[in-house]
Amino acid sequence: MTKLRWGILGCAGIAIRSCIPGIQQSETGVVAAIASRDLQKSQETAAKLDIPTAYGSYEELLADPNIDAVYIPLPNHLHKEWTIRAAQAGKHLLCEKPAALNTAEVEEMVAACEEAGVLFAEAFMYRHHPRYERIQAIIESGEIGDVRGIHSTFTFNNPGDSKNVRFVKAWGGGSMYDVGCYPISVARLLLGREPEAVTTHALFSPEHDNVDMMMSGLVEFSDNVALTFDCGMWANFRNTLEVLGTTGRIEVPSAFVARTEEDGLFYVITGDGRRVEQVPYVNQYALQADDMAYAAWGQRALRFAPSDAIRNMKVIDACLQSASERARVVIQG
């Protein structure tokens, strides 16, 4: 089989730990090159991960005619610039979440990709895991009745890492950008519609450049259904999901992380008891890469259109505005 040849812009931890191994384990992809502004760093990473080519600048990688697609795990404030430059170089784009710093930036990125005739996808790897198709099927079957609400969390505890880019406000730091985007995404995915308004509260930490180190919120959907969530970078680790229905509920103990067989299980609780649903282990990063490849080859459309990134960003914008103003924010359009 022909392989989609990937280039990686940067040596971020998410790329090294997860996305590069995922591409390498995919059916369709090969990591052909990696770039860093520090050539020694890219060379060391390339040697460690068996990547054949290392570059000392992002521009060199984008000029490589042997690269078909680019993965961007750069700090959030660099997503727009390098997505547009990669698109203009004719490369398909997988951009780490959140897609950018605000809705206007994402719209510009998507427009640039459309103009260049390349694909754009936001890297929400979890939604490629087959358990989400199963969860959607259970909801649609009516087994848990009518959905009354969704609750989701994503928190971790890392306040002492003073050099972490997540603690730089101008670079798109904060827990909403980093992990709060997941509960928003999953609620939109499972409900199949867009929210109408949000109300959030945040811990803005002067010790961390006043980024939101913790945020809790209410996201209102139509039909009197809501998502309640919390996200944080200064709290005990968890990443959970509960879908509450009138006659039952679905509990997902590890909603977004799926490193092991156990991580992939979830529970269905109804009047008939508590059932374990076990999905065989898959690498969700590999499935994400395959989705891009099959779309690049014209075999099928991307599972999630670029417009999804725009819609998710609208909710993120509203959550940040609400926390800043301590007010309910209606989402426009």
Please provide a written account of the structure.
Keywords: Oxidoreductase. The protein folds into 2 domains: 120 residues, Rossmann fold (3-Layer(aba) Sandwich), CATH 3.40.50; 172 residues, Dihydrodipicolinate Reductase, domain 2 (2-Layer Sandwich), CATH 3.30.360.10. By secondary structure, the chain is an alpha/beta fold. The mean pLDDT is 97. The chain contains 9 helices and 15 strands. The strands form 2 sheets. A 9-stranded mixed β-sheet has the order 14-13-12-11-7-10-9-8-15. A 6-stranded parallel β-sheet has the order 3-2-1-4-5-6, sandwiched between helices.
Mean pLDDT equals 97
Supply the CATH class of the largest domain. Answer: Alpha Beta
* Structural classification: alpha/beta
Percentage of residues in helical conformation = 25-40%
* Beta-strand proportion: 25-35%
The count of strands amounts to 15
Parts with pLDDT < 50 across at least 5 consecutive residues:
none
Oligomer designation: single chain
Number of helices: 9
CATH topology of the largest domain: Dihydrodipicolinate Reductase, domain 2
Provide the succession of SSEs. EHEHEHEHEHEHEHEEEEEEEHHE
Structural domain tally? 2
Distance between the termini: 43 Å
- Biggest β-sheet: strands ordered side by side in the sheet: 14-13-12-11-7-10-9-8-15
CATH architecture of the largest domain: 2-Layer Sandwich
Give the full name of the CATH homologous superfamily of the largest domain.
Dihydrodipicolinate Reductase, domain 2
